[in-house]
Amino acid sequence: MAPIGTLHYLVVAAALFVIGTIGVVTRRNVVIILMSIELILNAVNLNLVAFSRLWNLNGQIFSIFVITDAAAEAAVGLGILIAFFRNKETVNVDEVDLLKW
Amino acid sequence: MTPVAPTFFFYLLSTVAVVGAILVITRKNPVHSALSLIFTLLALAGLYLMLYAPFVAGVQIILYAGGIMVLFLFVIMLVNIERSQREVQFNQQWHVGIIASLALGFLFLYVYKHGSSIFPVNPVSMPEPMNTQQVGMALFRNYLLPFEIASLLLLVAIVGAVVMAKKRI
Predict the structure, then answer these.
(1) How many structural domains are present in chain B?
(2) Has residue B158 been placed in a domain?
(3) Do B91 and A26 touch (CB under 8 A)?
(4) What is the CATH number of the domain that holds B32?
């Protein structure tokens, strides 16, 4: 088998990104949509670390910042989810259409 | 220290990651999705170790698998999942969504196939025992301002989460 290069990691990251995108656009449950967003962020992190192997350490620093952002996003998103569930008694995104006309 | 049997472990870890990701978006029960997501995150931590990034791997395990997933599981316990499990899990536009996402994936593969010649062939040597020290040096010297901005972002996120989730302010 061929030795593992950067391209292998990029393909795995692309697969994770596409799976996360499919989850975001097709699922109705808000919790699973937030988990799919975490998958997308992880795919980006894998790309950053794989490229940082080729140049220098900056990709790893940036992936740490992305993890920080993911934590902040999960906290705020789940807070919004709790407020939303308290008001409408549902966790489905297509039942939240107040801003849609 | 060079990784042992990198080909085998790469394919093992990436298979675990991709299968876990597929399980995340297909399971009906959100608790099962969260557990699959934990497997994906741990496999990604292993891939970071193979890429000579032990500090990022540790942060991944502690913050993602330890912190964010506990937050997800708590919220799943708070919202009522019995009713949503009996409903349709996918929305009406799922055909269009899958087609668009697969188009995006083929775009990725096309770009990687034709653009991989610009990558440097030889990876730089990274002394693994020095990794945490080097990350700390970079984080507190060159990236000091983004570091402080990230701390401010976390403070705003904590305040925002409390404001959102509280019944009456």
Answers:
(1) 2
(2) yes
(3) yes
(4) 1.20.120.1200
| Chain A residues within 8 A of B80 when measuring between CB atoms | 85, 89, 91
Q: Looking at the domain assignment, is residue B22 inside a domain?
A: yes
ipTM of the assembly?
Answer: 0.90
Instruction: Determine, yes or no, domain membership for B34.
Output: yes
Q: Which residue has the higher pLDDT, A73 or B4?
A: A73
- From chain B residues 113-142, the ones with a CB under 8 A of any chain A CB are 116, 119-120, 123-124, 126, 131, 134-135, 138-139
pTM of the model: 0.90
DSSP string, A57-74: THHHHHHHHHHHHHHHHH
> In the Cβ-directed half-sphere of B57, how many Cα atoms lie within 13 Å?
16
**In terms of residue numbers, what domain contains B10?**
1-87
Predicted local confidence at residue B2, as pLDDT: 66
Same domain, B9 and B67: yes
CB contact under 8 Å between B40 and A14, yes or no, is: no
In this structure, what token pair is assigned to residue A10? 């990029």
Q: Give, in order, the Cα–Cα distances in Å from A57 to each of A48, B80, B123, B131, B134.
A: 10, 44, 12, 9, 8
Percent over 70 (pLDDT), chain A: 97
Inter-chain CB proximity B79 and A31 less than 8 Å: yes
Does A17 score more than 60 pLDDT?
yes
pLDDT for B155 equals 95
Q: Which of B87, B105, B138 is the last residue of a domain?
A: B87
Contact B44 A42 (CB under 8 A): yes
Which residues of chain B register pLDDT less than 70?
A: 1-4, 121-123, 125-126, 169
Q: Point out the residue among B24, B59, B131 whose CB comes nearest to the CB of A67.
A: B59
Domain membership of residue B97 (yes or no) is: no
Bin B142: left if φ > 0, else alpha if -120 < ψ < 50, else beta: alpha
Contact (Cβ atoms closer than 8 angstroms) between residue A33 and residue A49? no
